[in-house]
Amino acid sequence: MLQAVRCGWLQRAGVELALLRLERIDPLISGNKWYKLAPHLAEARRLAAPGVISLGGAHSNHLHALAAAGTRFGVATVGLLRGHELDTPTVRDLRAFGMQLHWLGYAGYRARHQADFWTPWLARYPGYLPVAEGGMSLPAARSCANLVGMIEEGLAALGWPDYQQLWVAAGSGTTLAGLVMGEGGRHPVVGTLAVPADHGVAATVERLLAEAGASPGSGYQLRDASRGGFARLDATLARFILDFERETGVPLEPLYTGKLLLALQEALQGGEIARGSRIVAVHSGGLQGRRALDARLRELAGLF
Ligand SMILES: Cc1ncc(COP(=O)(O)O)c(C=O)c1O
After folding, report:
1. Residue 174 alpha carbon, nearest atom of ligand 1
2. pLDDT tens readout for residues 284-295
3. How far is C-alpha 189 from the chain's CA centre?
């Protein structure tokens, strides 16, 4: 699962990189999604809930994994979607997986943080387990903490005695908080923000760490990797992704993993990481979301 990757910019910086290739754990329930969903699915089973209800956008990796898990494990799923009805590859899959969809508009979706948001939905779907956007919860973060053990197990096969930093993309901050818990201060965790810095990731990470009884504000740092906004693409990012894929054979998507590794490249070029360092980065999946962006990536990279 932990794999060393080689490419020109890493070599020039004298830094080694290993990817925790979570995108390969399952063709559908892949990346960090499995780790975040597993405790929710276990809770639904414990409560004998008739289904699970959650939220996301028209390209949501979280809803995609939840819908796939629903079909696989025989759990009914409901997806509340941001905005107005769109036909995307993700939405087509959600329907094919049997997820019941409701489009909330933009204002309706913004209401998701209000205390009574779930009341009408739970009246409509009695007994369903509500799961926050991105699967965010303390049990989800704790589940992601186990990834650190997976990294440790993979080090020997690489011949690495240790690593100096752990990098991961952050959307809600759940996975990052889990890794900080799992590391317990042994290695600094760098969270590259896929969303602008004012989107509350720092507050979520701090809240989850406090709930877990971990020391707040320590063991991690956040870097804005959003490049102007969530899902904002540009030519530099597009060329970086396509070059990285060609050189390493590892597929990326532009919202999380592409921006994560581009932020790492920028840190190396800025001399922020010492030569001889060994870095682990989490490949958190999300490749299903790339389908709708493939043509745009090629166009931005000047390939047609
Ligand atoms: C592919 C991918 N990577 C990383 C993340 C970020 O995870 P988290 O929300 O736990 O910060 C997400 C979505 O949430 C994602 O879909």
Report:
1. 10
2. 999 999 999 999
3. 15
What pLDDT does residue 77 have? Answer: 98
Query: How would residue 303 be classed by pLDDT, with cut points 50, 70 and 90?
Result: confident
Does residue 258's CB lie within 6 angstroms of at least one atom of ligand 1?
A: no
For residue 111, the CA-to-ligand 1 centroid distance in Å is 21
What tens digit of pLDDT does each residue of 168-214 get?
A: 999 999 999 999 999 999 999 999 999 998 899 999 999 999 999 99
Buried/exposed 34-56: b ≥16 CB within 10 Å, e otherwise: bbbbbbbbeebeeeebebbbbbb
* Cβ–ligand 1 contact at 60 (below 6 Å): no
Q: How far apart are CA 179 and CA 293, in angstroms?
A: 29
Q: Considering 54, 60, 137, 284, which one is annotated as catalytic?
A: 60
Q: For the chain, what is the total number of helices (H) and then of strands (E)?
A: 13, 10
Is the model's pLDDT at 304 over the cut of 80?
A: no
> Cβ distance 54 to 121 under 8 Å?
no
- By C-alpha distance, which of 18, 15, 296, 291 is closest to 153? 18
Cβ neighbours for 57, distance < 8 A, ≥ 6 positions apart: 81, 82, 83
**Selection from 248, 287, 290, 301 nearest residue 65 by Cα:** 287
What domains are defined for the chain? Answer: 2-28+139-300 (3.40.50.1100), 32-136 (3.40.50.1100)
Active site residue 60: yes
Give tens-digit pLDDT for 17-76.
Answer: 999 999 999 999 989 999 999 999 999 999 999 999 999 999 999 999 999 999 999 999
DSSP 83: B
Residue 298 φ then ψ, to 5°: -65, -40
Whether 219 lines ligand 1, by a CB cut-off of 6 Å, is no
CB 274 within 8 A of CB 188: no
